[in-house]
Specification:
This protein is of the alpha/beta class. It is built from 9 helices and 10 strands. Helix 6 runs parallel beside helix 7.
Length: 271
């Protein structure tokens, strides 16, 4: 007999149930479960080949699972392309940073979502509202506390790695109405720039935006995450809290040296 459902329990914003993804004979996801709740930073960690990337791709529309369900706000969805996930409010910032270096900050922020001028100029002559986009871009940067970027007409190719990452995160925050997914956002950054990105993540959480953080940097994960999803051999090995478990134990779960019973895991959001 199944356990009674708690009607007062919070509902996941984005959920994966028994996801299976294979590439030929290689099993990337093996009945994997996943759930991120409103207003939390959920870190996803795991060794190479654990299925982290495949999991995120299936949730963001870059890949389609062979079997299993993806639910957004409790309703089953089927994303065939990333643009469909973006339209539903799921924004992903990949490690490779999909920015156009020759364009300015505002143009990158509205890339693919350009705003036209009002009236005949926009509808007939299809002229872009450059001034309006620059002002909205500046407002977005200010709301995230990004003070190092003031000139929205500055080409992205003149920015540092951390500043480019800030542009990508700001774009995701501007249009991600449901979830923001960050794939190794500090992998190529120095200490100072990494700290700036971590502050951005915290600001997103303060705004109530759920953030999925994929990272190999364990100290950073334990600094900002509310819960940690440990991926191993294509499955969810455990979901733990950084407040009750250390880095050593987290690594032990990743390698299979430590097993965490389901009743001891933090499967619900941390209050």
């Amino acid at each position: 007999m199944s356990a009674p459902v708690d009607q007062d329990a919070p509902r996941p914003v984005l959920e994966g149930r028994a996801l299976v993804k294979t590439y030929g004979r290689v099993v990337a996801l093996d009945a994997c479960n996943f759930a991120v709740y409103p207003g939390e930073v959920l870190a996803v960690i795991g060794d190479n080949g654990a299925g982290k990337s495949s999991l995120i791709k299936c949730l963001s529309g870059a890949e389609v699972a062979n079997t299993g369900e993806v639910l957004l706000d409790g309703k089953q969805v089927s994303f065939r392309r990333p643009i469909e996930a973006r339209a539903a409010g799921i924004e992903t910032v990949y490690q490779t940073l999909a920015v156009a270096p020759a364009l300015d900050i505002a143009s990158n922020l509205f890339l693919g979502r350009e705003v036209r001028k009002p009236g005949v100029l926009g509808s007939v002559f299809r002229m872009l509202d450059g001034g309006g986009m620059r002002q909205r871009a500046k407002d977005q940067m200010s709301s995230l506390g990004i003070g190092t970027l003031q000139n929205m007409a500055q080409p992205v190719e003149t920015l540092s790695g951390g500043q480019r990452q800030a542009v990508s995160v700001a774009r995701a925050a501007a249009f991600g109405s449901k979830v923001v997914i960050l794939d190794e956002p500090t992998a190529a950054l120095g200490v100072r720039e990494s700290n700036q990105v971590l502050k951005l993540i915290e600001r997103l959480r303060e705004r109530g935006m759920p953030v999925i953080l994929i990272s190999h940097n364990m100290p950073q994960v334990f600094e900002v995450a509310d819960r940690i999803h440990v991926q191993r051999l294509g499955r969810r090995a455990a979901v733990v809290s950084p407040n009750t478990i250390g880095i050593t134990d987290a690594v032990a779960i990743m390698t299979g040296a430590l097993q965490v019973p389901e009743e001891e895991q933090v499967l619900a959001p941390v209050a």
